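ok new one. same drill as before - structure tokens go in, u give me an amino acid for every spot. 167 of them this time. try not to just spam alanines like last time pls lmao
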């Protein structure tokens, strides 16, 4: 048979160590860290989304209405409408287009999950989820990954490298 361990002796020595040990206070910073990372990531995404791509919602029998993309993630996006344009209702399915230039776009469908009036900016901000299983799921996935990747290395042009005259 193998080696026999004496549990009573081991238990007594463990208990005496615990009595002499000072209790250390543990602080969980995970939530605070995630909030900071999320806030930093969103600021960068907002910059690129509002200045880099054009977004429109498709209104049946009316045409395209320009919206401002506010934020984007794997599951959905937030967009803003001018307060005077109205608002979508929770649960509305809306066709959306993201334009990469004046004529090239890819369409997808969103489902509005919330809307809130931001009076000081005169806008209605809508949160929406991507409707899965519709057209362009793959393109949309890659577009979101592109935005996330590019936004990690964005720089702001301060105009310091402009050329005034070439001869």
């Amino acid at each position: 048979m193998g080696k026999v361990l004496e549990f009573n002796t081991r238990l007594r020595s463990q208990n005496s160590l615990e009595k002499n040990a000072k209790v250390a206070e543990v602080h969980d910073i995970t939530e605070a860290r995630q909030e900071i990372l999320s806030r930093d990531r969103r600021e960068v995404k907002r910059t690129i989304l509002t200045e880099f791509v054009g977004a429109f919602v498709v209104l049946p029998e009316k045409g395209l209405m320009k919206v401002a993309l506010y934020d984007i993630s794997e599951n959905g996006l937030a967009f803003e409408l001018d307060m005077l344009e109205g608002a979508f209702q929770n649960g509305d399915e809306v066709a959306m287009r993201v334009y990469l230039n004046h004529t090239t776009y890819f369409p997808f469908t969103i489902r509005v999950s919330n809307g809130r009036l931001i009076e000081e900016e005169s806008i209605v901000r809508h949160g929406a989820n991507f409707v899965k299983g519709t057209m362009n799921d793959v393109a949309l996935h890659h577009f979101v990954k592109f935005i996330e990747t590019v936004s990690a290395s964005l720089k702001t042009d301060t105009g310091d490298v402009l050329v005034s005259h070439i001869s």
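The helical segments are 7-20, 30-52, 137-151. and btw Strands lie at 54-59, 63-72, 76-82, 93-99, 105-118, 123-130.
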